[in-house]
């Protein structure tokens, strides 16, 4: 056995490539989407249960918290979609090299930031 192997890896000190961060964020955005869809379905169910609950949800829709929840779920959807399109393009054989992966990851981040910022302007 090689005794020079690290015993305990500190993920915070490892210098990961941008492709790793994009992949990790893609997974996190998927988890946020699952939780966000559950919240949005709960809001939909509450809005359809009675006129009073519909009016309460309508009144709360302008609150900062509600706008933040909608923005977070839609931001996760935007990022997850853009990263998913990158994966589909890579499945076609485009950008499969390390350099192509890095370029694709930078494009995913740039496009996502722009679209999420535009979404924020539309919501607020």
UniProtKB/TrEMBL annotation:
Give one Pfam hit by family name.
Sdh_cyt
Extract the GO molecular function terms from the UniProt entry.
electron transfer activity; metal ion binding
Cofactor(s) this protein requires? heme
Q: How does it sit in the membrane?
A: Multi-pass membrane protein
* Entry's localization field: Membrane
List, alphabetically, the NCBIfam families matched: succ_dehyd_cytB (TIGR02970)
Q: Which PANTHER family match?
A: SUCCINATE DEHYDROGENASE CYTOCHROME B560 SUBUNIT (PTHR10978), SUCCINATE DEHYDROGENASE CYTOCHROME B560 SUBUNIT, MITOCHONDRIAL (PTHR10978:SF5)
**What is the protein name given in its UniProt record?**
Succinate dehydrogenase cytochrome b556 subunit
Q: What is the lineage of its organism?
A: Bacteria, Pseudomonadati, Pseudomonadota, Gammaproteobacteria, Cellvibrionales
């Amino acid at each position: 056995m090689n005794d020079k192997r690290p015993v305990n890896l500190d993920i915070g000190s490892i210098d990961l490539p941008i492709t790793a961060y994009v992949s990790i964020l893609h997974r996190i955005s998927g988890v946020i989407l699952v939780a966000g869809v559950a919240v949005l379905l709960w809001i939909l169910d509450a809005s359809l249960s009675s006129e009073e609950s519909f009016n309460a949800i309508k009144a709360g829709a302008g609150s900062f918290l509600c706008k933040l929840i909608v923005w977070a779920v839609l931001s996760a959807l935007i990022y997850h979609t853009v990263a998913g399109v990158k994966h589909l393009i890579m499945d076609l054989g485009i950008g499969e090299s390390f350099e192509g992966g890095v370029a694709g990851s930078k494009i995913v981040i740039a496009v996502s930031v722009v679209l999420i910022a535009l979404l924020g302007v539309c919501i607020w």
